[in-house]
């Protein structure tokens, strides 16, 4: 009698299929584990050869020799590093077990042994008679221009003594003063200067200052600025460069050991000025450019209370 729903028929038909599926799945999983372990290679944690359970796995299954198997301290469960962090039998007592208690990829990679650093390349030996090439040095610190570039740029700068005739706050910028300068024969110049934090207005009124006269005019927050008052700075300290004692409005400033600059351009290139600034420093309380003191016919320009190397701009 043929009955397709009979138990024996279902058993004989389905069990071999299920066994085949389980066997195929196990083989695929085994191949995947092998592939991952082979990719790790020597970076994996070595297996403990004294562990009999691990030795049994090596002989019975396709297990990488780079895995490490160790016993739990509280029970006999075998933990496989680096995949198991806690013992599933006793490591989660009193707490909610994780759905997938596995390490993250980052932590797994961090647990792997670090590769040895590559050996440094041997230095090339200098041959006899071969001179070592000297490295060029700048006067402006790292990335500074050379002394020749600073000196050549300075020859195009027009610097003189001016007098502050009036001072008021900038209408839209709290850190700026709007200053009117008496420059002598030329018409008055207007300057926007960031000196609010460092000088009260009464300390600046009628004061003689050193001014850069031929920078390109520009607007600061909508107010024109046609010159620049020279000042040194170090951190939060700012000090105006003082002209020599006895100076008068219009006195020309130049470098010690040189002649006053002539034929200076009406508008100095910002590129040239940026090179000059790298060599504009405080040295022994005096303003210097490329190591030469800024002077007039009456003496040297001073920058009080600032250390050597402080920038002037």
TrEMBL record:
GO molecular function, one term: tRNA binding
Pfam family, one: tRNA_bind
Entry-linked InterPro entries: NA-bd_OB-fold, tRNA-bd_dom, Tyrosine-tRNA_ligase_regulator
Region (Disordered): 113-151
Signal peptide boundaries: 1-24
PANTHER family hit by this protein: TRNA-AMINOACYLATION COFACTOR ARC1 FAMILY MEMBER (PTHR11586), TRNA-BINDING DOMAIN-CONTAINING PROTEIN (PTHR11586:SF37)
The name this protein goes by in its record: tRNA-binding domain-containing protein
Organism encoding this protein: Vannella robusta
């Amino acid at each position: 009698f043929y009955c397709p729903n009979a138990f024996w028929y279902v058993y004989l038909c389905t069990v071999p299929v299920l066994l085949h599926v389980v066997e195929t799945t196990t083989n695929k999983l085994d191949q995947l584990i092998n592939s991952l372990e082979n990719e790790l290679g020597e970076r994996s944690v070595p297996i403990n050869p004294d562990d009999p359970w691990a030795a049994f796995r090596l002989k019975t299954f396709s297990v990488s020799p780079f895995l490490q198997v160790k016993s739990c301290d509280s029970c006999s469960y075998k933990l496989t590093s680096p995949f198991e962090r806690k013992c599933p039998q006793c490591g989660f007592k009193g707490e909610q077990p994780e759905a997938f208690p596995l390490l993250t990829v980052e932590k797994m990679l961090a647990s792997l042994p670090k590769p040895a650093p590559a050996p440094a390349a041997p230095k090339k030996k200098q041959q006899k008679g071969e001179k070592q090439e000297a490295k060029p040095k700048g006067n402006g610190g790292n990335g500074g221009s050379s002394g020749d570039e600073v000196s050549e740029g300075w020859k195009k700068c027009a610097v003189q003594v001016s007098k502050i005739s009036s001072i008021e706050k900038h209408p839209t910028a709290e850190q700026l003063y709007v200053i009117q300068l008496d420059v002598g024969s030329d018409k008055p110049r207007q300057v926007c200067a960031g000196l609010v934090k460092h000088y009260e207005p009464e300390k600046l009124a009628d004061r003689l200052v050193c001014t850069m006269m031929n920078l390109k005019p520009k607007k600061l927050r909508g107010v024109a600025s046609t010159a620049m008052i020279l000042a040194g700075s170090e951190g939060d300290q700012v000090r105006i460069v003082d002209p020599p004692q006895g100076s008068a409005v219009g006195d020309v400033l130049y470098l010690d050991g040189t002649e006053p600059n002539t034929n200076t351009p009406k508008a100095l290139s910002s590129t040239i000025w940026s090179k000059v600034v790298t060599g504009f420093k405080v040295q022994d309380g005096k303003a210097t450019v490329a190591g030469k003191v800024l002077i007039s016919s009456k003496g040297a320009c001073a920058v009080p209370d600032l250390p050597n190397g402080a920038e002037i701009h």
